[in-house]
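Re: [help] complex structure
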Amino acid sequence: MSLKIPSDTVPETTGSAGMQKNIKTILKQLESDGIIGISVDCVIFGFDDNELKVLLIKSDLEKFDNKWSLLGDLVNNHEDLDQAAYRILKERTGLDDVYLEQVKGFGAVGRHPAARVVTIAYCSLINIEHHKLKILDNELHWHRVTTLSEMAFDHRQILDVCYEWLQKRIQEHPLGFSLLPKQFSLRELQNLYEAILDVKLDRRNFRKKFFSMGLLEDTGELESDVPHRPGKLYKFNYDKYQKKERKKWFGIDF
Amino acid sequence: MSLKIPSDTVPETTGSAGMQKNIKTILKQLESDGIIGISVDCVIFGFDDNELKVLLIKSDLEKFDNKWSLLGDLVNNHEDLDQAAYRILKERTGLDDVYLEQVKGFGAVGRHPAARVVTIAYCSLINIEHHKLKILDNELHWHRVTTLSEMAFDHRQILDVCYEWLQKRIQEHPLGFSLLPKQFSLRELQNLYEAILDVKLDRRNFRKKFFSMGLLEDTGELESDVPHRPGKLYKFNYDKYQKKERKKWFGIDF
DNA sequence: ATTATATCGTGTATTTTTTACACGGTGAAG
DNA sequence: CTTCACCGTGTAAAAAATACACGATATAAT
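Output below.
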């Protein structure tokens, strides 16, 4: 017999009052049996209107009435952690080929009010445009990351950790491109970095930096619908990046 | 009722044949109930003889006969993940005030032969000297990290991930000091970095780099028992490090 | 058509950081 | 009293990061 109970967020799209009761019963049983549940929570970032956004859903638990919650679910018995995260992502965004990476496990004893649940946080970056079709479905919402007050469970802490992880990560690895269209102008790229890192950067030096890596490919196309001189559109060359030999020693810097 | 079953490694020091049977029974039951177990595994690093070592134990499972295993245990229902890791560390090394950090969760379906167990890997750095008293107990062994062949479970993979994590981490954060005595010479520190990162560094520039951070404190003492001119002994000033404001933007570098 | 405006794209001088490298000093061992 | 191995410091050259300016080109307003 395979237990199937809800996680921090509603896994079924057909959430109803009758469902709720069932959920609570199962959670209670888990709790009384002293079994630790294991879930996966996805911090799905998007970039829109020059701001970093995160995809959230209204919590279904009374205790967290109207609070925002990350997208998550219990891990099934037959699936890896990564698979579980991909499943959630697919269910919620319809997107398949996305950037996804594990960030950290969270297992404080009281983090879930109904039972002991350890969750593994994943971070995902998607192009918000690709996802727009599906957003109307339910209680899903893109929310600014900078102006978030309370959230359900320990999801605020998880989001904070993931946001800091992202800030560090985009400076060392080429993930930012996942938030942009395949083709992008250099200004769009810089806006992305400035928004995520909350810094102002010099346009010319930013340009120099990226071109010196030799990983941006000129598509020959130009921006359109801009009220000024259009910039060239580039795409990131992942192949070249893979083949590139990375220097091992990068120095000590506390 | 609180389930208590063994993890990837024997939690009890009194491991015996009778115990083994009990373990298997419980694992089988878990497996048939479709419950996912959750454990913590500690990658405990030490530094000795100018080499990075890891603390391992002989696996108790027949399938992994004589293979090396990390130190781990199932997470108890009433303890946080971090607490579980600390508990294992304390049980095995007798050490308390140690560096410990979560690295990654591993949850491949078939990673444990007896049941589905998701494990959270922790990385710990200890001074190998402090631990020598307790090593005689059982099957514990300090093993070179560079010359390790097969290991039990997916522990080789976990170790690899943690080793790479360490290589990156010691360049950005002051953790290396946990592997050294409180007081150390600059050469010892450099040997540590060279061993862990597998690079040769210029002695003078290494010195310059560290002193320019202003975090090394001259103890006034000198090395002893060296067959040459003794070097000064320093200690790391953690207080100063905490107070130090770190620059946010450190540039893009793929 | 002409002008205003906003961004594009490039180059250069300055500062800072990293790297490479040399020499005199001190303690132990023979 | 010489050899050896490492300690401790300084400096010149190379590389990287930063600051900053100007002409070009598109749209929109006049």
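Helices of chain B lie at 17-33, 81-93, 128-131, 155-172, 186-197, 203-213, 238-243.
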